[in-house]
Protein backbone atom coordinates (compact mmCIF):
# COMPACT_ATOMS: atom_id res chain seq x y z
CA UNK A 1 0.00 0.00 0.00
CA UNK A 2 1.30 3.53 -0.76
CA UNK A 3 2.39 5.85 2.00
CA UNK A 4 0.28 7.70 4.50
CA UNK A 5 -1.95 10.45 3.15
CA UNK A 6 -1.93 9.36 -0.52
CA UNK A 7 -5.17 9.93 -2.45
CA UNK A 8 -6.74 8.11 -5.39
CA UNK A 9 -9.71 8.77 -7.69
CA UNK A 10 -12.24 6.15 -8.75
CA UNK A 11 -13.19 5.62 -12.38
CA UNK A 12 -16.93 6.46 -12.11
CA UNK A 13 -17.79 3.91 -14.80
CA UNK A 14 -16.74 1.24 -12.30
CA UNK A 15 -18.82 2.67 -9.44
CA UNK A 16 -21.53 -0.06 -9.50
CA UNK A 17 -18.92 -2.82 -9.38
CA UNK A 18 -17.08 -1.01 -6.57
CA UNK A 19 -20.26 -0.56 -4.51
CA UNK A 20 -21.06 -4.27 -4.69
CA UNK A 21 -17.72 -5.02 -3.01
CA UNK A 22 -18.17 -2.68 -0.03
CA UNK A 23 -19.77 -5.31 2.28
CA UNK A 24 -16.49 -7.25 2.12
CA UNK A 25 -14.94 -4.56 4.35
CA UNK A 26 -16.93 -5.83 7.34
CA UNK A 27 -17.49 -3.26 10.07
CA UNK A 28 -16.94 0.32 8.88
CA UNK A 29 -17.70 3.83 10.10
CA UNK A 30 -20.21 5.65 7.88
CA UNK A 31 -20.36 9.44 8.10
CA UNK A 32 -22.76 11.70 6.17
CA UNK A 33 -22.49 15.50 6.10
CA UNK A 34 -24.69 18.45 5.15
CA UNK A 35 -24.15 22.16 5.71
CA UNK A 36 -26.20 21.86 8.95
CA UNK A 37 -24.06 19.09 10.41
CA UNK A 38 -23.37 15.41 10.18
CA UNK A 39 -24.08 11.94 11.48
CA UNK A 40 -21.92 8.87 11.81
CA UNK A 41 -22.06 5.32 13.12
CA UNK A 42 -20.34 1.94 13.11
CA UNK A 43 -22.11 -0.59 10.93
CA UNK A 44 -21.81 -3.30 8.31
CA UNK A 45 -22.93 -2.36 4.81
CA UNK A 46 -24.91 -5.54 4.34
CA UNK A 47 -26.79 -5.68 2.12
CA UNK A 48 -25.84 -2.84 -0.21
CA UNK A 49 -27.02 -2.46 -3.78
CA UNK A 50 -27.73 0.06 -6.52
CA UNK A 51 -31.34 0.92 -7.37
CA UNK A 52 -30.97 1.61 -11.08
CA UNK A 53 -34.45 3.13 -11.35
CA UNK A 54 -33.66 5.92 -8.88
CA UNK A 55 -29.85 5.82 -9.41
CA UNK A 56 -29.20 5.45 -5.69
CA UNK A 57 -26.87 3.38 -3.56
CA UNK A 58 -29.03 1.72 -0.91
CA UNK A 59 -28.38 -0.11 2.34
CA UNK A 60 -31.79 -0.45 4.04
CA UNK A 61 -30.47 -2.17 7.17
CA UNK A 62 -28.06 0.73 7.72
CA UNK A 63 -30.63 3.40 6.83
CA UNK A 64 -28.42 4.75 4.05
CA UNK A 65 -29.21 6.10 0.59
CA UNK A 66 -26.77 7.92 -1.70
CA UNK A 67 -27.66 9.67 -4.96
CA UNK A 68 -25.30 8.53 -7.70
CA UNK A 69 -26.59 11.28 -10.00
CA UNK A 70 -25.39 13.88 -7.48
CA UNK A 71 -22.04 12.15 -6.93
CA UNK A 72 -19.17 13.95 -8.67
CA UNK A 73 -16.52 11.39 -7.80
CA UNK A 74 -15.15 8.99 -5.20
CA UNK A 75 -11.72 9.47 -3.69
CA UNK A 76 -9.76 7.13 -1.45
CA UNK A 77 -7.14 7.76 1.22
CA UNK A 78 -4.40 5.17 1.30
CA UNK A 79 -3.46 4.99 4.96
CA UNK A 80 -5.11 7.73 6.93
CA UNK A 81 -4.93 11.44 6.18
CA UNK A 82 -2.61 13.56 8.31
CA UNK A 83 -1.68 10.70 10.62
CA UNK A 84 -5.24 9.55 11.24
CA UNK A 85 -5.80 5.92 12.22
CA UNK A 86 -8.70 5.83 9.76
CA UNK A 87 -8.64 5.60 6.00
CA UNK A 88 -11.62 5.59 3.76
CA UNK A 89 -13.62 6.36 0.66
CA UNK A 90 -15.05 9.87 0.18
CA UNK A 91 -18.14 10.23 -2.02
CA UNK A 92 -17.88 13.82 -3.27
CA UNK A 93 -20.86 16.04 -4.14
CA UNK A 94 -21.62 19.48 -5.52
CA UNK A 95 -21.65 21.40 -2.26
CA UNK A 96 -18.66 20.71 -0.05
CA UNK A 97 -18.30 20.00 2.83
CA UNK A 98 -21.46 18.00 2.11
CA UNK A 99 -20.55 14.42 1.42
CA UNK A 100 -20.42 10.83 2.54
CA UNK A 101 -17.40 8.91 3.86
CA UNK A 102 -16.96 5.21 4.52
CA UNK A 103 -14.00 4.69 6.84
CA UNK A 104 -12.13 1.43 7.31
CA UNK A 105 -10.87 0.97 10.87
CA UNK A 106 -7.74 -1.13 11.43
CA UNK A 107 -9.08 -2.92 14.51
CA UNK A 108 -12.46 -3.96 13.11
CA UNK A 109 -12.40 -3.67 9.29
CA UNK A 110 -10.82 -5.98 6.73
CA UNK A 111 -7.81 -3.87 5.79
CA UNK A 112 -6.57 -6.38 3.22
CA UNK A 113 -9.90 -5.92 1.45
CA UNK A 114 -9.48 -2.15 1.66
CA UNK A 115 -6.07 -2.36 0.00
CA UNK A 116 -7.49 -4.68 -2.65
CA UNK A 117 -10.32 -2.26 -3.47
CA UNK A 118 -7.84 0.57 -4.00
CA UNK A 119 -5.64 -1.60 -6.19
CA UNK A 120 -8.56 -2.82 -8.31
CA UNK A 121 -10.76 0.26 -8.72
CA UNK A 122 -8.69 3.39 -8.19
CA UNK A 123 -6.25 5.05 -10.53
CA UNK A 124 -2.98 6.87 -10.11
CA UNK A 125 -2.17 8.63 -6.80
CA UNK A 126 -3.28 12.26 -6.39
CA UNK A 127 -1.33 14.98 -4.60
CA UNK A 128 -3.26 16.67 -1.81
CA UNK A 129 -2.92 19.94 -3.70
CA UNK A 130 -4.54 18.45 -6.80
CA UNK A 131 -7.40 17.03 -4.73
CA UNK A 132 -7.98 20.35 -2.96
CA UNK A 133 -8.01 22.17 -6.31
CA UNK A 134 -10.56 19.70 -7.69
CA UNK A 135 -12.73 20.05 -4.60
CA UNK A 136 -12.57 23.83 -4.78
CA UNK A 137 -14.66 23.65 -7.92
CA UNK A 138 -17.48 22.10 -5.90
CA UNK A 139 -17.34 24.46 -2.92
CA UNK A 140 -20.38 26.79 -3.04
CA UNK A 141 -20.25 30.50 -2.37
CA UNK A 142 -21.61 31.81 0.94
CA UNK A 143 -25.43 31.82 0.70
CA UNK A 144 -26.08 33.87 3.87
CA UNK A 145 -27.39 37.43 3.78
CA UNK A 146 -25.66 39.92 6.09
CA UNK A 147 -28.16 39.44 8.92
CA UNK A 148 -28.04 35.64 8.69
CA UNK A 149 -24.25 35.73 8.59
CA UNK A 150 -24.13 37.88 11.72
CA UNK A 151 -26.51 35.53 13.54
CA UNK A 152 -24.52 32.52 12.36
CA UNK A 153 -21.25 33.95 13.66
CA UNK A 154 -22.91 34.56 17.04
CA UNK A 155 -24.17 30.94 17.22
CA UNK A 156 -20.72 29.63 16.30
CA UNK A 157 -19.04 31.84 18.91
CA UNK A 158 -21.47 30.94 21.72
CA UNK A 159 -22.88 27.50 20.85
CA UNK A 160 -23.48 26.64 24.51
CA UNK A 161 -26.13 29.40 24.63
CA UNK A 162 -28.24 27.77 21.93
CA UNK A 163 -31.33 25.87 23.12
CA UNK A 164 -30.30 22.74 21.23
CA UNK A 165 -27.50 22.24 23.77
CA UNK A 166 -29.91 22.42 26.71
CA UNK A 167 -32.33 20.08 24.94
CA UNK A 168 -29.67 17.44 24.38
CA UNK A 169 -28.31 17.87 27.90
CA UNK A 170 -31.76 16.97 29.19
CA UNK A 171 -31.85 13.90 26.94
CA UNK A 172 -28.48 12.83 28.34
CA UNK A 173 -29.59 13.28 31.95
CA UNK A 174 -32.75 11.24 31.33
CA UNK A 175 -30.93 8.59 29.25
CA UNK A 176 -33.36 9.13 26.37
CA UNK A 177 -32.77 7.46 23.02
CA UNK A 178 -32.82 9.72 19.96
CA UNK A 179 -33.64 8.68 16.42
CA UNK A 180 -31.95 10.97 13.93
CA UNK A 181 -32.09 11.36 10.18
CA UNK A 182 -29.66 13.40 8.12
CA UNK A 183 -31.19 14.32 4.76
CA UNK A 184 -30.06 16.10 1.62
CA UNK A 185 -30.18 15.83 -2.15
CA UNK A 186 -27.02 13.74 -2.10
CA UNK A 187 -27.46 11.34 0.83
CA UNK A 188 -29.76 10.17 3.58
CA UNK A 189 -28.56 8.46 6.77
CA UNK A 190 -30.57 7.38 9.81
CA UNK A 191 -29.02 6.62 13.19
CA UNK A 192 -30.31 5.73 16.64
CA UNK A 193 -28.25 6.72 19.65
CA UNK A 194 -28.48 7.24 23.37
CA UNK A 195 -26.65 10.54 23.98
CA UNK A 196 -23.88 10.25 26.53
CA UNK A 197 -21.84 13.42 26.16
CA UNK A 198 -21.69 16.78 24.39
CA UNK A 199 -18.44 18.15 22.98
CA UNK A 200 -18.22 21.75 21.78
CA UNK A 201 -15.31 22.78 19.58
CA UNK A 202 -14.84 25.53 16.97
CA UNK A 203 -18.55 26.19 16.55
CA UNK A 204 -19.44 22.49 16.23
CA UNK A 205 -21.66 20.80 18.80
CA UNK A 206 -21.07 17.03 18.77
CA UNK A 207 -23.49 14.73 20.55
CA UNK A 208 -21.71 11.47 21.37
CA UNK A 209 -23.69 8.27 21.74
CA UNK A 210 -22.84 5.36 24.01
CA UNK A 211 -22.15 3.16 20.95
CA UNK A 212 -19.72 5.41 19.01
CA UNK A 213 -22.55 7.08 17.07
CA UNK A 214 -22.16 10.84 16.68
CA UNK A 215 -24.39 13.75 15.71
CA UNK A 216 -22.57 16.96 14.80
CA UNK A 217 -24.31 20.33 14.53
CA UNK A 218 -22.70 23.12 12.50
CA UNK A 219 -23.91 26.04 14.60
CA UNK A 220 -23.03 28.71 12.02
CA UNK A 221 -25.54 27.21 9.58
CA UNK A 222 -28.15 26.09 12.12
CA UNK A 223 -30.61 28.85 11.27
CA UNK A 224 -33.83 27.52 12.80
CA UNK A 225 -35.35 24.75 14.91
CA UNK A 226 -38.90 23.59 14.22
CA UNK A 227 -40.35 21.68 17.17
CA UNK A 228 -43.59 19.74 16.79
CA UNK A 229 -45.44 16.52 17.44
CA UNK A 230 -45.70 14.12 14.54
CA UNK A 231 -46.94 10.61 13.96
CA UNK A 232 -44.47 7.94 12.86
CA UNK A 233 -45.63 4.38 12.21
CA UNK A 234 -48.82 5.07 14.13
CA UNK A 235 -47.11 6.50 17.24
CA UNK A 236 -46.87 10.14 18.35
CA UNK A 237 -43.33 11.44 18.85
CA UNK A 238 -41.56 14.71 19.61
CA UNK A 239 -39.63 16.01 16.62
CA UNK A 240 -37.00 18.69 16.03
CA UNK A 241 -36.21 19.77 12.49
CA UNK A 242 -33.00 21.71 11.84
CA UNK A 243 -33.00 24.15 8.92
CA UNK A 244 -30.42 26.34 7.18
CA UNK A 245 -31.09 29.95 6.21
CA UNK A 246 -32.49 28.87 2.83
CA UNK A 247 -35.25 26.96 4.60
CA UNK A 248 -33.81 23.53 3.78
CA UNK A 249 -34.13 20.85 6.45
CA UNK A 250 -30.84 19.03 6.93
CA UNK A 251 -31.42 17.09 10.15
CA UNK A 252 -34.34 15.73 12.11
CA UNK A 253 -34.44 14.25 15.62
CA UNK A 254 -37.25 12.09 16.96
CA UNK A 255 -37.93 11.01 20.56
CA UNK A 256 -40.64 8.55 21.56
CA UNK A 257 -42.25 10.91 24.06
CA UNK A 258 -44.71 13.43 22.57
CA UNK A 259 -44.89 15.33 25.88
CA UNK A 260 -41.36 16.70 25.40
CA UNK A 261 -42.56 19.24 22.82
CA UNK A 262 -43.83 21.64 25.48
CA UNK A 263 -40.57 21.60 27.45
CA UNK A 264 -38.43 22.04 24.33
CA UNK A 265 -40.59 24.96 23.17
CA UNK A 266 -40.25 26.58 26.60
CA UNK A 267 -36.46 26.28 26.40
CA UNK A 268 -36.51 28.06 23.03
CA UNK A 269 -38.74 30.85 24.33
CA UNK A 270 -36.42 31.43 27.28
CA UNK A 271 -33.45 31.57 24.90
CA UNK A 272 -35.18 34.29 22.83
CA UNK A 273 -35.79 36.35 25.98
CA UNK A 274 -32.17 35.91 27.05
CA UNK A 275 -30.83 37.00 23.64
CA UNK A 276 -33.04 40.10 23.62
CA UNK A 277 -32.05 41.20 27.14
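Sequence proposed for the structure above (277 residues):
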Amino acid sequence: MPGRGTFFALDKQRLPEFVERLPELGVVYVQARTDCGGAGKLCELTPVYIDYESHTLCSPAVGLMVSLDECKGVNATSNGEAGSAMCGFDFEFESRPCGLSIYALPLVSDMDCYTSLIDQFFGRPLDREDLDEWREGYSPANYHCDNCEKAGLYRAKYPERHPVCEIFQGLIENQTRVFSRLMSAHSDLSISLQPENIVIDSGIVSVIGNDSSVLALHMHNLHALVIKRKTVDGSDVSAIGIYNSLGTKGLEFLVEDPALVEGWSHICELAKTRDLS
